[in-house]
Amino acid sequence: MARRHPRNDDPLSAASGRVSKSAAPRPTGGSSRAARPRTFGNLPAPPKSVADGALEHYEHPAYYDRAYAARSADVEFYVEQARGVRGPVLEYGVGSGRVALPLLRAGVSVVGVDHSQPMLDALKRGAAREDGLLERLRLVRGDMRSKRLHQRFALVIAPFNVVLHLYTRRDIERFFARVHEHLTPRGRFVFDFSVPRCEDLALDPERWWGGSRVSHPRFGKRVKYAERFHYARMTQVLTTWMRFTGDAATEQAVLTHRQYYPAEMDALLHYNGFVDCRWAGGFESEAPNQAADTLVVNCRSGRSRSR
User: Do 144 and 162 touch, CB atoms closer than 8 A?
Assistant: First the structure.
């Protein structure tokens, strides 16, 4: 599900379809290490667990759908990956169907796993509005680290930073083990994740960024939007607080993302048994480079197993 906000002043109007972590303006100058705040000050308390930050952002599917409606390059990429695949595609983090619905419209059957019931309900409603989609969709609510489907797939996908909700080495080991179990012997596992950016991780955690006005379906009108960030260097978890302020009410949500560096992810894939890993610096098959905001990985299981 989600993951970076559109790179402009309004997270609901990303005309380019490219996304970054924040819609807020960036600071123009740096500060010394000694000058950086060491406490949260009046920052809202960190989530009780990173798991809270894996769910809150997905409690309002209508806002999520509007916020990321302009993001299309990855959708087209995953639809193309699924063309010609025999049998259904397994999508982790299926959410409200930003990728799954186009897959269904392209004639691809989908098995979707997600932990957010509101997002799954929204996807089911969306599929029911179009003839022939719901019958090719199977939805499973559960933890992607542990959910066993007792079925194998020629294509397993985890779009749009799903892997950034795996916060520890054990989390990613468990998830990769499930992927191995669900792949056919020649099946491919394809996912993408945002490259950490030093300027995001170094933002002042005491400061709210933004102040633009955005449309929020829950408020029924445009409201003031701002974000705050805190990066925990030892756990590599970036926490983002999103604040929506209307005339008479304020709503806030938290999002937590584990930051994975390219070489780190490469090692995790290798030591967890994935082979033939093909990397791209975006959704146009371009080679990874210094300017890449998103990395796409296409790999297969190297573990032998009996049918």
Answer: yes
